[in-house]
Design brief:
Helix content is 26%, strand content 34%. It is an alpha+beta fold and 380 residues long. The strands form 2 sheets. Strands 6-7-8-5-1-4-3-2-9 form a 9-stranded mixed β-sheet. A hairpin with a 2-residue loop joins strand 15 (322-326) and strand 16 (329-335). The radius of gyration is 20 Å and the shape is globular. The two termini are 28 Å apart.
């Protein structure tokens, strides 16, 4: 089993409390069609809408939800009407559909924003109060890598569905959940030499700790490699691995991402389930494509490597689910292919059975599968 470096400092002194991921907002070219994809393929439901029909003339947003996961898909309708709509349109032009906002649920947005800026964060906007008949939300925002931001969302005085400006929706088509529960972690890709810059940002600005470090010997194959550090807040509800490329014989997955995304950004989101076999079967039945080609020997040797597990190995092999163990237990994980024509954003489906790590023992098998996909795309 591959191992990661554990930093000596294992305690966190959060700059401000974070209760969890509030929402993830994507800027997309066509929010209505993107929403339909996540509904039909990933089992989300559209629960609210903001757009021209609600008085917002320049953009449209759909709120999708599955258990504790909230995605907001936003598109510009008239980029000429406002600076904000132009930012959306320019983001899509440059990056394709991608993550703009990893929003964090905080107790006090004013205090969180003030402390973050005081410690060196660059402001996107100061705290704003949004009100309707259900109360008020306070929201501020700071910059992180690339054009990604963190909104800081305070909800303690709001009783509504999501936030002012959104109107509830109950579409006729509401497929059942596939079993996704919450956001486990979100991975960012940054340029060569920038990983430690953003590690220091999360440590200094937000008080996160370096939970794990993976070097280019741990995450590598014969052809490509990368380096990664996992930053986490004190309660471990927020975990942000930061990746940068490392030298190799061929272009790494990080280099390919940076080329196609035109810079740093969110590479993938890991969505947790309590039943990975059931969830993956449902996703496959709905058309979601997963990386494949894990060598048969991986499963033949699986229990020798990770010990006894509850799941039938033959079922895991059939689906291509990977397994790894750490001192606290084991985890099961599988990765989708990119969900867009640009090979950028993809998803990890993860089930934790005690494990707190990130599947270091699976990195070689995963990289080999990714390299096969890269070869098919001509990116070598």
């Amino acid at each position: 089993m591959a191992t990661a470096t554990l930093p000596e400092q294992a305690t966190a002194g959060d700059t401000f409390p974070i209760n969890g991921t509030d929402f993830i907002e994507f800027y997309v070219g066509n929010a209505r069609q993107a929403a339909h994809y996540y509904v039909s393929a990933f089992g989300f439901n559209i629960v609210a809408y903001r757009g021209p029909e609600t008085g917002v003339r320049d953009r449209a947003s759909y709120l999708l939800q599955q258990d504790k996961i909230r995605f907001v898909l936003t598109t510009a309708i008239r980029p000429d009407l406002s600076a904000e709509a132009k930012v959306i349109a320019d983001h899509v032009y440059r990056h394709g559909d991608g993550v703009r906002d990893l929003a964090l649920w905080v107790d006090d947005a004013r205090d969180a924003y003030s402390k973050a800026v005081e410690r060196g964060a660059e402001s996107v906007h100061e705290p704003r109060v949004m009100r309707d008949d259900d109360g008020e939300i306070v929201i501020a925002a700071i910059k992180t890598y690339g054009e990604t931001i963190h909104s800081l969302v305070e909800r303690k005085n709001y009783r509504g569905l999501f936030m002012p400006g959104f109107r509830p929706m109950t579409p006729l088509y509401q497929p059942p959940s596939v079993g996704l529960k919450y956001v486990d972690h979100c991975v960012g890709n940054v340029e060569l030499g920038k990983m430690n810059v953003w590690v220091d940002f999360y440590a200094t600005v937000m008080g996160f700790r370096n939970l794990l470090t993976f070097d280019d010997k741990t995450i590598s194959t014969e052809y490509s490699s990368l380096m990664s550090k996992v930053m986490a807040n004190g309660n471990d509800r927020i975990k942000f691995p930061i990746n940068e490329p490392a030298a190799g014989k061929k272009k790494s997955q990080i280099d390919e991402y940076l080329d196609f995304y035109s810079g740093p950004g969110v590479q993938h989101m890991a969505l947790a389930t309590d039943d990975i076999i059931g969830t993956v079967n449902k996703l496959r039945d709905r058309g979601v494509q997963f990386l494949s080609g894990v060598p048969g020997a991986y499963y033949t040797e699986l229990q020798d490597r990770v010990g006894k597990i509850d799941e039938p190995v033959e079922e895991l092999a059939k689906l291509g689910v990977l397994v790894d163990r750490d001192p606290d237990g084991y985890l099961l994980q599988i990765f989708t292919k990119p969900v867009e024509d640009r090979p950028t954003v993809f998803y990890e489906i993860i089930q934790r059975k005690g494990a707190k790590s990130f599947g270091a023992g699976n990195f070689k098998a995963l990289f080999q599968a990714i390299e096969r996909e890269q070869e098919l795309r001509g990116n070598t």
